[in-house]
Amino acid sequence: xxxxxxxxxxxxxxxxxxxxxxxxxxxxxxxxxxxxxxxxxxxxxxxxxxxxxxxxxxxxxxxxxxxxxxxxxxxxxxxxxxxxxxxxxxxxxxxxxxxxxxxxxxxxxxxxxxxxxxxxxxxxxxxxxxxxxxxxxxxxxxxxxxxxxxxxxxxxxxxxxxxxxxxxxxxxxxxxxxxxxxxxxxxxxxxxxxxxxxxxxxxxxxxxxxxxxxxxxxxxxxxxxxxxxxxxxxxxxxxxxxxxxxxxxxxxxxxxxxxxxxxxxxxxxxxxxxxxxxxxxxxxxxxxxxxxxxxxxxxxxxxxxxxxxxxxxxxxxxxxxxxxxxxxxxxxxxxxxxxxxxxxxxxxxxxxxxxxxxxxxxxxxxx
Length: 367
Prior knowledge:
The chain is of the alpha/beta class. It has 2 domains: 7-194 and 353-366, Glycogen Phosphorylase B (Rossmann fold, 3-Layer(aba) Sandwich), CATH 3.40.50.2000; 200-349, 3-Layer(aba) Sandwich (Rossmann fold). Helix content is 44%, strand content 18%. Strands 3-2-1-4-5-6-7 form a 7-stranded parallel beta sheet, with helices on both faces. The protein has a 6-stranded parallel beta sheet with strand order 10-9-8-11-12-13, with helices on both faces. Helix 1 (17-30) packs parallel to helix 2 and helix 4 packs across helix 5 (117-126). The longest helix has 15 residues, at 91-105. It is globular. The N and C termini lie close together (11 Å).
């Protein structure tokens, strides 16, 4: 018997611009026919509140969130534990309260993207009321696939495999949005969809004006920007949250961090990309055929995994924020033409965007 979903809860992690852009594509599609209630926190919530304030089919509500703290260009496990301690100690109460709210709202479907509290509460609620759960997540690439990651120390591989497996609960379906596709996933409810990209990326024609686009995330800025100032034989367009705090140099153009059309134009016309080893910026660079130097925040093992996958594409290099140096940046720029060809080959042979697949699966699942 087919089931029509009318009311959808959509929870999104509050850290990182990539969560905003990829889920915006899905939310926009869903809201054409359904009521969508967004649950998030931090920057993601702020952006969505502004974006959808006049849309009657979309509401935005704040929930607790897992936050990551950094110290000296490194992910600080101790500081992060301290920052999250109050909520984590109240987890049973938070889960019960949110599960009760979910049942009271009579949601038909819960979709979660890399979000902890609401996803667990929705799974708990699904045992009490008629609710289906879908998770969009790239962690199973590490915890439930045939890919190996020798760059991680054995002890850390074991710890992170446990963490990535349990960061989100099981669901009716788990959709994998990594840019590198493993051959095998070990759970039947896991399906590879590929990265969901912004519509502006999909409709952009790439070119090469010679500059290097740099996404200067605050966690690596103190290490990366001084190094860029020493590589004076290349031109950089650097996007930062507060560009006015950095000293101007003739070979560097500083711009306000904004994922809008100017960023897309600079990305599409770049010769190479440097930034944090996340999922979304590398995915956009791959689609546009740009080589990538991914910088993993020290101790941020998820980004170590992303970096390893970048290397497997044949069009990327990666390092950690602690090991980053000017010589490595120069080596990356020297090799950019060869890496660009490797990225184009990977895009042609193994890379698929998830936009069509995620809509197809959603329509099949909810209609």
